[in-house]
Every structure is written in structure tokens, then in C-alpha cells.
Task: structure prediction
Amino acid sequence: MKQTPNYTKGVVLFLILVLPSLLYLFLTSGKHNFVYLPIIANQSQGYVPLLDENRQGTPEHHFITDFALRDSLSFRDLDDKIKLVFFSHADDVLTSQLIGYMFETEVWAHLGNYEDIYFLNFVVVDSTSVFDPSIFQENIIPEDQWINIALTQDSLLNLLDQNILVGGINTKTIVNSKLKVGETIICDREGRIRTGYNNSDKMILCYNSLSKFEIKLLRDDLKVLLAEYQRELKKKND
Result:
């Protein structure tokens, strides 16, 4: 039987053992591999994401002040929960349902059974469009974790301006004086705003849930945030 030359064996071993690692490094080069998901700084620092801050010192974070979500629930009642804040319009039912579907399939299906993630759907209503919560009746996300807050746009902007809609987030979420549908903001357990970067090292600030690419970035950044809290918990228990 003819034997395989040694150099051929070497090439095969290279392809099996080395090439996958090199390919992975190439594909992930230029991307941020966070240990901690960046936190939005306070107003004096221009609401920029803090990457390499010393978290053991005095942090300069922007903290979201409390506001009512509905009669018996306020934003700070959800302390110790991760909140996803996003926007929809009562007069666009199909888009609202698509947002729900994207969160179900691209976030909840991958991070399901995690009781600390809440979905805060701020719905813009007016005199001619009334919000119908039954459009989400087939939503598989638990009802207590999917919270609809229906407000006029002026009331909503007054509530969130310089609180959640800060810095570049304000610019991305308000286009032509109207709230952009599907833009999603990560709020952590401490009431701070978190963000990541896309594959071109551009700040996301908020993620469009109607974009499959951006909602996958959102899911990946949520995983980073969850891992961060798990590490902190492990440190406390050790």
C-alpha cells in the first residue's frame, strides 16, 4: 500500500489543528471582547461609554431617576432587574407585532427562563390611535416581564428626556421630531445605561430590534452583562 508523504500529513494536521484558530482570530479581530459591558457616563463627561474605568473608585455613571410605569409600578421597582426599553406606535400594529416576534425569537428563545430581563414597551398613542394590548396575546414572554406603557409622544419625551434619552441616544431615537420605532436601550440592575460596539468599532448606544443584525448584537451584549453579574456574585460568595 502506498504511504502518504510526511509533508501531506503535515498539511492535513495544520488544516485540522491550526487553521480553525487562525480563522477565529481573523474573524474576531477588531471586535470588542468585553469583560464588562461599557456604562454610559454622566452629563459632565458627555454621556460617552466608559470602557476602561476603575470601577473600584468613584464611578461617573449616569443613573436613571425614578418615574412611573403605571399606577402600581415604577422604574425603580425593577431594581435588580435588567430592563430593555424600546418604542412602538399604536397606529402600526404589524410593526409592533414584528418587534414582539424579534424579541421572542432572537432574545427570549436564547436567554429564556431568565427572570431578571424585563421588556418595557413604550407605546406612542394619540387621539386617533389607541393602544390595544391584545396584539401581544400570543407573546411567549411572560406577561409580568413584558410591560406596555402607553403615552402621548409629548408625555413620553418629557418623561425620558435627559433621563434615558441622553447624549447620542437622544439623537438615534428621535428622528424628525418623532420617536424611532424599535430602538432598544439596555438598562442594568443599578439603573445605568449599557451599550456595546458593532463589528466596525462604532458605538451602538441603542439597538434596532427590527434589524436581525443589531438584535443579535443586543443578545450578545446581554450575555456579557449577565456574565458580569455572575462573576460579581461568585466574588461575593468566595
